[in-house]
Amino acid sequence: MTFHVVALFPSAFDSYLGESILKRAIEDKKVKVVFYNPRDYAYDKWNRIDQKPYGGGPGMVIQALPVARAIERAKKAAGRKKAKIIFFSPSGKQFDTPYAKKIAKSYDHIICVCGRYEGIDARVRRMFTMDEVSVGPYVLTGGELPAMIVMDSISRQVEGVLGNYDSREEERIASPDVYTRPEVVTYKSKNYRVPKVLLSGHRARIDEWKKGRMKPRG
User: Fold this and answer.
1) What angle do CA 144, 158, 31 make, to 5 degrees?
2) 118, β-bridge pairs
3) Which residues, 6+ apart, have CB-to-CB distance to 117 below 8 Å?
4) For a FRET experiment, which of 2, 120, 137, 209 has its CA 20 to 30 Å from that of 79?
């Protein structure tokens, strides 16, 4: 699985990709991440990639051509293999696990387009076939965090990325409440115990308890 990331601030990914599961996946060549900075595809001598928005308003808008050139470079790197382009937008389709599973099954190359400032010139979305995706009902400073979320979720669907492929919570009965040793934790003179059913060894009852914990609370 190769992620091609179009982003103005690729160093923002360093910490997350340099730790834990994704780091190991990259080292084991299960996942590859390649960055394309639109500044490298600017067409003036100052490498400028932003301009004031037409129609007025605050902030700056990222120009279309540097982003388009970066996407073209990513598509070229993918070769003849079909690539899915994901454009992050607060008004896009809500990202979820079924979408991650579908993309992981259908594509080996994923191009993530990360905006900044007031966004990317809308004409880019007319130049390419792409999915507009949102990671939640809120607005973020840029597309880097959404890209990390998408990369993490999709990478989990790639066999060999997790130590045990069956450990994916989305493929088994998994409670949001988990416990480990010791059986009794004492904090400020109060004892906190593991639910008895988890100590019973009765798999059917344990699964039923987990299903109950998965229900909406409140």
Assistant:
1) 55
2) none
3) 50, 59, 60, 61, 62
4) 120
